[in-house]
Amino acid sequence: MSACTEHRSLSETEYLDAEALADVKSEYLAGEVFAMAGASERHNRIAGNIFFIYAQSAVVTHAVPSWRT
Q1: Domain that holds residue 51
Q2: Which of 67, 34, 31, 33 is nearest to 51 (CA)?
């Protein structure tokens, strides 16, 4: 088995082109690509419910959600 000794950064365009054709999702950070773990339907439902509750409480209290600051 040989180790990869050369490291090449990807441009944003190269990453987006590859991501459009990929079967699995990945994350791009400063020229490097990292595989993302898949989320189950149950996980997405729980996360969505938490987001909904958080957003509703922000509307009721007239608070500004942290992602809007």
Answers
A1: 12-64
A2: 67
Buried-state track 12-45, b at ≥16 Cβ within 10 A, e below 16 = eeebeeeeeeeeeeeebeeeebeeeeeeeeeeee
- Encoded tokens for 62: 């007239």
pLDDT tens digit at each of 69 positions of the chain: 556 667 788 899 999 999 999 888 889 998 898 988 878 899 999 999 999 988 887 776 666 666 655
C-alpha–C-alpha distance, residues 61 and 27, integer Å:
35
Q: Is 1 a member of any domain?
A: no
Q: Are 64 and 58 in contact (CB under 8 A)?
A: yes
30 lies in some domain: yes
